[in-house]
């Protein structure tokens, strides 16, 4: 805190020295006019008032002390020809561990998924999406997921000109969340004419079909106004079956125990050892297995001997045999429509107003697999059993038997997430003397509804499984319907065989759960900037800004964890603690927080045109932030640029940044899930509630980042720019969800003799028996990482025609997650980690090549490479094969100018092939997948394979 106050005082002193009047300026009409910050073979637009993302005073990207990369939309779409701008961004090396349409599709609404298991989020440095700030034309985007992340597929793309990526802490400039950096989608504000495109693609396997159609237009309104608008509709049919749609997957799953005696390994053809598609008869007890135990209904109504295959090293599973497996989706289907409109008007020559609005409508669908029915109890006189089996049970004196089944005869569990986001931004800006000023207001309203379908209603399932013969009619009915009129519509369910259940019974038993969240943001900001005065080294630029914003969140669910089944009149499969549905969501009243901020930024030139110093400038910023929920904080940034000569410059920054706890971190409603857990103190297995809630005492995380880099433009190689930047980030008081039932957490408590704060997460009665475990977010962790970013840009001519080459490299060997009493996790160069940590290769490379072969033909190549990585970030785990192989893909796009051929000027036809050489992603896996088969995470790369796209574009 003392350091922050000192930095603030120094900056305030500089501002007083440099100000005759308060000043500021911000205009994002164009990206930085710097050849190092534009796409290959693309000229940088010239504009006198350009503000570089990451600063409110710097007007030249090459003068930015903070590393900045700008990628044009055209270059991005060459990287992901059949995807979105956001899919393409996730191909860039600085984005490690991001989630896109094929990453961890799931049906829950917990953790990083934020209510949408197929959300597309950006994650700089694999420090978490909530530590990456996303902007739309310089303004904070309201969160779209309940954990305050932004699903970036929702940003209108048709008029996006480029994307700026700032890789360094800039909370002092933009506020909370900019710990690992900022991603700014830059709008083309001055578009005139019209443009439209239509494209369609499909994988060589005949799936993952996608369609994209959109257009934009803009025109002047009189001599002072301008209007532009766009619409885009995108669809992707996804890859729906992990078990069938890619032969290389081959029912892969991690097996083993992670010890030297039983190491983890990635196996294929994995099946569940005690489940069958038609029903597997399980032992009644260890001492009394019962009749037919270990057999399964391989055909409807007929028991068969169960082939146990080969032991896999995991108690759940086997290799081959008759066991069942799961079948989740590989790529989630989606459909989205984006609308945008903007109107600008010059009130006077010096005062300009605008209003813009966007509407984004999107839905994702993912499948988590079939219903897994465990420990079902049946009467041995069940009406769907053949008479021979009933007689055999009667002769053995057995009244009930138990069965497990993967219910493949019914539809898979489906998660449908529908998002509706409304975004409105209005502003006024102008000039006053030598200063620029502006004020804006933003309103965002995001509605996310997640519906989990095809879930068994536990009460109806219990009734439907107890099938008997009605003595009065001879029909098979539900036993409960004979004694309770509430079950008069009950349809008996036959599970004795893979296809034994009929549609009517499925319709009766299966239901859905809805989870609805609203996230709102209102924000107002104002700033003034400009040159306070000139020194012999150049102008002293100062920016003052202030911001207020209010965020609110509410949630409602049709079924919560405290909605229990009514077991009245039901003989089996129902107890007082049976929840109505296996998936539940919490309700939340409206919670809110308000934020007030004030900031100053100064750019001071120190030296100019002396020996070994063409220029030397200092940039600094400080911000005071007050959260109504988590206190007040000072953030700051100090940086400098030393331009040695026209060829060489050095740059560096030091910053203090914050991420405030989200509303959900603070106020998430209490949820209770009762289950079996091991008490590591006694070794006993206990069946107790696990209670999950928020923590209103959370404070902000504090990040410290420093960067140092160099930019080299050798005069003897015109058009070449080389950039290298080193970064180091430490996040203290990092917010981590701590689980009381976790064995490591329990042991940390016990070894401390009860003094550890972890002990508060374990409740015991007077006799020492565990009565509950608690799950709670806490400021308890530290995250540390460092690495090197490299960039090469080369624009030249080959055979008299334009050639552009761009190479982006990231080396990030370590990402340490430290927590007291817990072994440190190193996620750098590693695959899956605890708490949902995603794979993070230590080396990633992205290469762009653009060449105009003829006046009518242009070729774009994009290459992405990642090195091999360890299968897990948990050092104590033992793996038989500890590494996932390296992986590289090549995308090719050929564009034909069709203007003369079709007699339509400014039209083009393009053909793209992604994954040109059909590289197959090496199998990886999440070690928690040892409890399932066909449902765990068996890959970390795009599973689509070679895919083709054709499109047509017209401009006028």
Characterization of this structure:
With 956 residues, the protein is mostly beta strands. The chain has a domain at 21-234: Beta Complex (Ferric Hydroxamate Uptake Protein, Chain A, domain 1), CATH 2.170.130. The chain has ten helices and 46 strands. A hairpin with a 7-residue loop joins strand 33 and strand 34. 52% of the residues are buried.
Short précis:
The protein has ten helices and 46 strands. It has 956 residues and is mostly beta strands.
Please describe the topology of this protein.
Blueprint: H1 2-18, E1 68-72, H2 73-79, H3 85-89, E2 132-136, E3 139-140, E4 160-166, H4 171-174, E5 181-187, E6 193-203, E7 210-221, E8 225-236, E9 253-255, E10 265-267, E11 270-272, E12 280-282, E13 295-299, E14 302-305, E15 310-311, E16 317-319, E17 334-346, E18 351-369, E19 372-379, H5 387-396, E20 400-406, E21 413-432, E22 435-456, H6 458-465, E23 467-469, E24 476-478, H7 503-509, E25 510-535, E26 538-557, E27 588-610, E28 613-627, E29 631-643, E30 648-659, H8 663-667, E31 671-678, E32 685-692, E33 701-712, E34 720-739, H9 743-751, E35 762-764, E36 770-798, E37 801-819, E38 822-826, E39 830-832, E40 843-852, E41 857-866, E42 869-872, E43 883-884, E44 887-897, H10 899-902, E45 907-914, E46 947-955
């Amino acid at each position: 805190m003392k350091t922050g106050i000192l930095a603030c005082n120094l900056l305030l002193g500089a501002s007083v020295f440099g100000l005759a009047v308060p000043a500021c300026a911000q205009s994002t009409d164009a990206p930085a006019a710097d050849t190092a910050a534009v796409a290959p073979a693309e000229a940088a637009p010239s504009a006198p008032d350009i503000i570089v993302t990451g600063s409110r005073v710097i007007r030249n990207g090459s003068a930015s002390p903070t590393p900045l990369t700008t990628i044009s939309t055209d270059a991005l779409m060459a990287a992901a020809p059949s995807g979105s701008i956001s899919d393409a961004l996730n191909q860039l090396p600085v984005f490690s561990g991001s989630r896109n349409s094929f990453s961890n599709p799931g049906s829950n609404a917990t953790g990083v998924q934020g209510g949408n298991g197929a959300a597309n989020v950006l994650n700089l440095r694999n420090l978490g999406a909530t530590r990456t700030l996303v902007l739309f034309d310089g303004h904070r985007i309201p969160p779209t997921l309940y954990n305050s992340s932004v699903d970036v597929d929702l940003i209108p793309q048709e008029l996006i000109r480029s994307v700026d990526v700032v890789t360094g802490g800039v909370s002092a400039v933009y506020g909370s969340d900019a710990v690992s950096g900022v991603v700014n989608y830059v709008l083309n504000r001055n578009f005139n004419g019209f443009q439209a495109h239509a494209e369609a693609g499909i994988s060589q396997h005949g799936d993952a079909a996608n369609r994209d159609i959109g257009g934009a237009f803009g025109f002047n309104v009189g001599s002072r106004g301008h209007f532009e608008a766009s619409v885009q509709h995108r669809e992707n049919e996804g890859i729906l079956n992990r078990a069938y749609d890619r032969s290389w997957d081959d029912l892969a799953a991690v097996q083993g125990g992670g010890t030297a005696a039983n190491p983890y390994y990635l196996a294929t053809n994995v099946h569940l050892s005690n489940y069958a598609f038609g029903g597997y008869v399980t032992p009644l007890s260890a001492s009394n297995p019962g009749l037919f135990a270990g057999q399964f209904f391989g055909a409807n109504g007929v028991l068969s001997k169960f082939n146990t295959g080969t032991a896999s090293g995991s108690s759940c599973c086997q290799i081959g045999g008759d066991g069942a497996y799961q079948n989740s989706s590989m790529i989630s289907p989606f459909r989205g429509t984006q609308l945008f409109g903007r109107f600008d008007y010059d009130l006077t020559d010096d005062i300009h107003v605008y209003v813009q609005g966007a509407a984004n409508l999107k839905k994702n669908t993912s499948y988590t697999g079939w219903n897994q029915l465990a420990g079902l109890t049946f009467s041995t006189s069940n009406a769907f059993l053949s008479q021979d089996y009933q007689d055999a049970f009667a002769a053995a004196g057995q009244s009930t038997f138990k069965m497990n089944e993967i219910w493949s005869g019914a539809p898979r569990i489906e998660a449908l997430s529908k998002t509706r986001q409304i975004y409105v931004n209005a502003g006024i800006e102008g000039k006053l003397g030598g200063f620029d000023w502006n004020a804006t207001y933003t309103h965002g309203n995001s509605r996310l509804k997640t519906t989990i379908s095809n879930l068994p209603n536990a009460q109806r399932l219990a009734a439907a499984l107890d099938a008997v013969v009605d003595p009065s009619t001879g029909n098979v009915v539900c036993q409960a319907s004979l004694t309770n009129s509430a079950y008069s519509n009950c349809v008996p369910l036959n599970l004795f065989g893979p296809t034994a259940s009929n549609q009517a019974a499925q319709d009766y038993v299966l239901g859905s759960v809805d989870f609805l969240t609203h996230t709102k943001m209102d924000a107002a900001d104002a700033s003034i900037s400009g040159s306070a005065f000139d020194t012999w080294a150049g102008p002293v630029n100062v920016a003052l800004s202030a911001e207020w914003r209010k965020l609110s969140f509410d949630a409602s669910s049709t079924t919560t964890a405290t909605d229990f089944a009514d077991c009245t009149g039901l003989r089996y499969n129902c107890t007082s603690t049976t929840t109505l549905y296996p998936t539940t969501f919490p309700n939340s009243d409206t919670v809110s927080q308000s934020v007030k901020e004030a900031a100053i930024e100064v750019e001071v030139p120190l030296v100019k045109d002396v020996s070994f110093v063409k220029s030397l400038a200092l940039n600094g910023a400080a911000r005071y932030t007050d959260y109504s929920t988590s206190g007040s904080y000072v953030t700051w940034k100090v940086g400098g640029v030393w331009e040695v000569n026209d060829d060489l410059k050095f740059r560096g920054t030091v910053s203090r940044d914050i991420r405030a706890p989200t509303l959900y971190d603070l106020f998430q409603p209490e949820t209770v899930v009762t289950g079996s857990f091991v008490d590591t103190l006694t070794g006993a297995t206990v069946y107790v509630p696990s209670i999950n809630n928020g923590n209103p005492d959370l404070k902000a995380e504090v990040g410290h980042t420093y960067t140092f880099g160099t930019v080299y433009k050798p005069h003897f190689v015109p058009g070449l720019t080389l950039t290298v930047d080193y970064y180091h980030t430490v996040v203290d008081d990092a917010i981590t969800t701590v689980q009381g039932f976790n064995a490591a957490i329990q042991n940390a408590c016990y070894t401390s003799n009860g003094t550890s704060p972890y002990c508060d997460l374990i409740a015991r009665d007077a006799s020492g028996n565990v009565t509950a475990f608690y799950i709670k977010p806490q400021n308890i962790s530290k995250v540390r990482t460092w690495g090197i970013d490299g960039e090469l840009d080369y624009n030249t001519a080959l055979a008299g025609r334009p050639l552009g080459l761009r190479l982006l490299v990231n080396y990030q060997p370590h990402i340490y997650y430290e927590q007291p009493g817990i072994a440190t996790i190193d996620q750098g160069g590693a695959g899956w980690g605890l708490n949902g940590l995603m794979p993070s290769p230590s080396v990633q490379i992205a290469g762009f090549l653009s060449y105009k072969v003829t006046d009518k033909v242009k070729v774009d190549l994009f290459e992405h490479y990642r090195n091999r990585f360890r299968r897990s970030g948990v050092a104590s785990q033992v793996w038989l094969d500890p590494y996932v192989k390296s992986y590289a893909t090549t995308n090719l796009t050929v564009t034909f100018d069709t203007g003369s051929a079709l007699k339509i000027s400014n039209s083009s036809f393009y053909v793209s092939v992604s994954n040109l050489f059909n590289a197959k992603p090496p199998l990886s896996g999440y070690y928690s997948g040892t409890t399932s088969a066909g449902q765990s995470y068996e890959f970390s790369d795009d599973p689509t394979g070679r895919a083709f796209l054709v499109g047509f574009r017209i401009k006028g």
